[in-house]
Amino acid sequence: MTTSFPWRPILAIAVVGVLAAGGAALTFLPAASDARLVIETPTDGSSPASRAVTVRGTAPEGSTVRIYDDNSNAILLGTADVVDGHFSAEIAYGDGAATRQGLYIDSTDGGELLDADTVAITLPALGAGAPYDPEGPSSASADSPR
Length: 146
Fold this sequence. Notes:
Layout: H1 7-26, E1 38-41, E2 52-58, E3 64-69, E4 72-81, E5 86-92, E6 100-109, E7 112-122
């Protein structure tokens, strides 16, 4: 009569032990960066108080945020560098700009697109007797991009 060694249960216990140890080791590794572009203001569908719109949010550290007219992605309205994970840029819409606007906002790192988002806003209508300033409050505007 021969006795056999129960190798299958021992092998199963060893495999479970290795998998558990590997999973425990993975919890000590630093988490992969899941930083992404988040537009905090203006929010989609919002109505800013003025025609000078501040675009603010968070993006991957060291990236550059570009803001385009959503109707024609070829019109660059502004850029902002991301510092400490945050960015801010002001876009000035002139008197000739329509009240309904769309912004296409992306973040890039060395030319590589990291993330993108769109935001639709409604600008305030011009009041009666509002002075016309062709330069607008800044040199970059939706009517006359750089």
